[in-house]
Amino acid sequence: MAVDAKTSSAPTNTNESQYDENLKKKRKLTSPTWEHFKKMKVGGVMKAICDHCHKHLGAESKNRTKHLLDHIAVCPMIKQRDTRQMLLKANSSSDGKCASLDTYHFNPEVSRYELGRMIVLHEYPLSIVEHEGFRRYSNSLQPLFKVPSRNTIRVDIFKMFMYVPSPHDAENLGDALMECLLDWNIERKLLTLILDNCSTNDVMVNVMLDKLDKSLLLVNGKLLHMHCAAHILNLIVKKGLDKLFGSSVERIRESIAFWTATPKRLEKFDESVRHLNIPCFKVLSLDIKTRWNSTYLMLSTALLYKDVFFSVETT
Prior knowledge:
By secondary structure, the protein is mostly helical. 53% of the residues lie in helices and 10% in strands. The protein is built from 13 helices and 7 strands. The strands form 3 sheets. It has a 3-stranded antiparallel β-sheet, with no helix packed on it. The chain has a two-stranded antiparallel sheet with strand order 4-5. Strands 6-7 form a two-stranded parallel ribbon. The radius of gyration is 35 Å and the shape is flat. Mean pLDDT is 79; it is low at 1-26 and 81-85.
């Protein structure tokens, strides 16, 4: 039987390379690394493409797989996915005991909202988000949560409250308050409104009485407006301070405002504190004139640095 020489000849170099390539394609990738990568040619070079972040890494046989394992350990997408799968949340029963475990999905927007709510609820300073200790504590709880800056959390807090456009007269304030009552569905369950002592609030209450059903109010609405006792106390103390120590308090306030105006002045003040060996680490702070307790805190701190004020004024 005659055999054609062409059919019996060895395959060409092109066929050999294709044959070798087919063998490579058919070869099973046994390393567990390839559960996270796809192997394909990019620009004529074999690359390993991450299934999670789509980063291209070397996939030639000489590269082996150690660098792929290293990437799996630091890939941000794998970290995020795995963290969400591993977190569990305990659901408590009515008696306070753990009743069940559910998977937990981390939502940074919810965490930011709760952070702003915590600051408002406990009257923390906005600067708490920039404290090193708070940031370390937050990172230990959830490394994926990026603590917002002071300005960002201020914007978040403003969004929690209703914006009342100017002018802030009795009519606009009354409309805004009525909208809240209707939104919360408590307009028929209202007992009293505790407000500061200003004439605008007095007029606003009269506006509210015209919009509410007086038959549902206590004594037909005669006790609707309750003046804030804390505000009354603040006015009494403030008037007493102004009458007895007004000029002294104002001089202390101006002095603190001067030394805290710039970092350079504050640094000079701190140097004087260390030079006089005063064992105090409280920070100078200005008061809010409408809050007598803040005036007390300002004066109590300034009293600790009495010698420092005399020292820096004479130098």
